[in-house]
Amino acid sequence: MLIYQLILKESNIFILDDILFAPINGLIFVAKKINDVVEKETSDEGTIKERLMALQLRFELDEISEEDYDREEDDLLRKLEQIRVDKKNR
Hints:
Blueprint (H helix, E strand, L loop, with lengths): L1 H42 L1 H16 L5 H24 L1
Helix pairs in contact: 2-3
């Protein structure tokens, strides 16, 4: 009977811990998901290529200046090169 009471008491403590830490665990979960999305966005060649095509389209439609286009294109090409280097070094 004593063992049963100890087990019951410990399980109540674990339930209480789960309730108290639920908001923190939720924030950790959301932060991990955001990190996964950011890593995918910054390490996927396809995403960078899509952004380059969108940039080209914006330039052709005169939505951005040539200076802005050149600056953003250089930035995206650097990112693309870095992704390729990182993949090669794995």
